[in-house]
Specification:
binds (~{Z})-2-methylbut-2-enedioic acid, Rossmann fold, globular, 3 domains, 15% strand, four-stranded parallel β-sheet, alpha/beta, 305 residues, 44% helix
Length: 305
């Protein structure tokens, strides 16, 4: 831990009246210095509730956009402007408009891992924690378009029995986790409870004990009497799991499940971000207002989720 840099970051956050958010997939040392850690929507909601004027989002672009949509009066900074999300970029607003044109009566549900423009074109936004409940809450006679992650979409379709129109997007970090990874890990750690993120492939999900979002994994591990867990998701979550449950063991299902974009944020970049107020993530007002409606509709139908 670099004490000098840490001190500098503290002084800068005070001077800027800033709050630092770190996603569960960030490197451990970044999670440790953050004011809040969590999933992208939870973090954006928490930041909106603070009186901070500046939000430094240690995560990827769509997450900073979500924070900007929920806090239009705050300045949102992404310390590395190239930290994007290939999954979010797998569907453009134009492609979604074409899909809506082909299915004019369908409702559109977009995963929070999407650009602000795609959220603005959607009726509802959802998270990996509430995709099933959200789809379940919609009129069963309605066709539903689900974008952009086909694995989360298929999971919601299977759990609800709804026939969703899926976009063929996927998270490159989650699909590297294989059935062999799960089988080998079970051989080495037969006592482990295996949790997988819904962005994993269907054959992987078929082999695990629990299918959970990152926030749900943290809650599950905290409540469970088990002492060993494996997580099939980005390896950053292992840091939080260990920190919150020092008496249990946590194993990544695959060491290859590393999101290169999430690992772009460093102490030096956070310092530069606060010193030079870079890189500001702005969502045009017209897009922001429409995108917020899809988030508000989600909260309306699932007020307690
Ligand atoms: O929405 C998020 O933060 C992501 C990417 C995953 C999750 O399950 O928390």
């Amino acid at each position: 831990m670099n004490e000098r840099l840490l001190e500098k970051i503290q002084k800068l956050t005070d001077r800027r009246n800033a709050v630092i958010l770190a996603h569960n997939y960030q490197p451990g040392e970044i999670q440790d210095l953050a004011d809040f850690t969590g999933d992208s929507l939870g973090l954006s909601i928490k930041a909106a509730e603070t009186d901070a004027e500046v939000i430094v989002f240690c995560g990827v672009r769509f997450m900073a956009e979500t924070a900007a949509i929920l806090s239009p009066q705050k300045t949102v900074l992404l310390p590395d402007k190239s930290a994007g999300c290939p999954l979010a970029d797998m569907i453009t607003a134009q492609q979604l408009r074409k899909l809506k044109h082909d299915h004019p009566d369908a409702l559109v549900v977009c995963y929070v891992n999407s650009t602000a423009e795609v959220k603005a074109e959607s009726d509802y936004c959802c998270t990996s924690a509430n995709a099933v409940d959200l789809v379940e809450s919609l009129p069963p006679e309605k066709q539903i378009i689900f974008v952009p992650d086909r694995h989360l979409g298929r999971f919601a379709a299977e759990r609800t029995g709804q026939d969703l129109i899926l976009w063929p997007g996927y998270c490159a970090t989650h699909v590297v986790i294989t059935e062999d990874d799960i089988n080998n890990m079970r051989k080495q750690h037969p006592d482990a409870i295996v949790m997988a993120h819904p962005e994993c492939t269907e054959p992987v999900k078929a082999l695990v004990d629990e299918i959970l979002s990152t926030g749900q994994m943290l809650k599950f591990a905290a409540k469970s009497p088990a002492k060993c867990f494996a997580a099939a998701t980005e390896i950053g979550i292992i840091h939080t799991l260990k920190k919150q449950n020092p008496n249990a063991r946590f194993i990544p299902a695959s060491d290859r499940a590393v999101c290169p974009n999430m690992k772009k944020i460093t102490f030096d970049k956070i310092v530069a971000s606060l010193e030079d107020m870079q890189y500001e993530i702005k969502v045009p007002q017209e897009i922001s207002v429409k995108a917020k409606k899809s988030l508000d509709r989600m909260i309306e139908v699932l007020p307690t989720k």
